[in-house]
Structure formats: structure tokens, C-alpha cells
Design brief:
By secondary structure, the protein is α+β, with helices and mostly antiparallel strands. The protein has one domain: Trna Endonuclease, Chain: A, domain 1. The protein is built from five helices and 14 strands. Strands 1, 4, 5, 9, 10, 11 and 14 form a seven-stranded mixed sheet that branches. Helix 2 crosses helix 3.
């Protein structure tokens, strides 16, 4: 966890506010297992109803672009290394652990959202929308975004079908399939 990163610091504050048990991981050093380097995760979170999550926080701004030409796109890209690392950490942590990509969208002040939007979090004067996708689901549908940077993304329709508010993972041990269509 990088406390200098406002997305990760806001995520930690969210966990504290919701009284969730967590471990913030020092990501300055990578773990090595069987001579293979594994990307560090950001948090291990223990939620209600026994939820066990290994989390990588992906900070994104919404909308993108310049104020005079905003791009209203919910970016959902990651690095292949992040997805691989989360799945490996979930496997190493034991049965029931889920790798989770948490997309923290810094929602700019000019964007109006209803007050009752799930997991809209205000911290230090900034609004964040917290959305998550299990890394195993992400891997199944990911597409290469940039071969040069080894980044991957999801098609927008797939992202909409998989993404859910974070609390669906932290406060529920399972979520019915019909709730999976919650979009930012």
C-alpha cells in the first residue's frame, strides 16, 4: 500500500470507516516464490460473513480528458502482472480467498451522481466511486490493451456485467447473479 497514493489512502479510510478488518501490504518489495517474482497486492481484507479478499486498488479519474472535452468512460484497464499476482495471492492464501480488482474512480466535482449511489465515498474533499471485479472473472474476459505496456482491459459490455459496488464483496459472502449487472 502506498499511503502517498490518494486512491489507496482513500480506500484504507473507507475500510476503517466501515470497520472492516484489513492488512495494508508494503508493496515496495515483491515476493519471490519458487524463484518467481509475484507482484505485491495492496490489501488483504476480511469482510462480513467470512469474506476474504486480496485486493489491488486501481485509481481512475472520471471523467477523463480536458474539462472542455470530457470523456465519460469508466476505465477498467490493469496490467497483466496485477491480474496474475492477485490470482496467485488468492491461491496461496487458501480456500475462500478471492482476488479483487477494486476500481476507485475519483469523480470530479462537475459530475452529478445521485446521493444514494452505492459506495460513493467522500474523503478529504474528493468523491470516490468504489467498484470491483473478481480477478478470475476479469482474466476470463480480458483483452490486450497495450502489448508494449502489457496492459489489459475488458470490453465495456463485459465490464458492466461483471462490476459491482465494493460492499457486495465485503458485506456478502455470495451475491446472486442477477445483482452482477450493477454498473458505475
Amino acid at each position: 500500500m502506498d499511503r502517498g497514493n490518494h486512491y489507496e489512502a482513500a480506500f484504507e479510510a473507507y475500510l476503517q470507516w466501515h470497520r472492516l478488518c484489513y492488512v495494508a501490504v508494503d508493496e515496495t518489495r515483491r515476493a519471490i516464490l519458487d524463484d518467481i517474482s509475484i507482484k505485491s497486492l495492496d490489501f488483504i481484507v476480511f469482510g462480513a460473513d467470512g469474506a476474504r479478499l486480496v485486493v489491488d486498488v486501481k485509481g481512475r479519474r472520471f471523467p477523463l480528458g480536458k474539462p472542455e472535452r470530457p470523456r465519460r468512460v469508466w476505465e477498467c484497464w490493469s496490467t497483466r502482472d496485477d491480474v496474475d499476482g492477485l490470482e496467485r495471492w488468492a491461491e496461496l492464501s487458501g480456500p475462500g480467498y478471492v482476488g479483487l480488482l477494486v476500481f476507485m474512480y475519483h469523480v470530479l466535482p462537475n459530475v452529478e451522481l445521485p446521493d444514494d449511489v452505492e459506495d460513493l465515498w467522500t474523503w478529504r474533499g474528493k468523491r470516490y466511486l468504489l467498484r470491483a471485479v473478481p480477478s478470475a472473472d476479469y482474466r476470463r474476459f480480458m483483452r490486450v490493451r497495450s502489448p508494449k505496456w502489457d496492459t489489459v482491459t475488458l470490453p465495456h459490455a463485459v465490464f458492466r456485467s461483471l462490476v459491482r459496488p465494493l460492499h457486495h464483496f465485503t458485506h456478502c459472502s455470495s451475491t446472486p447473479a442477477e445483482e452482477r449487472s450493477v454498473y458505475p
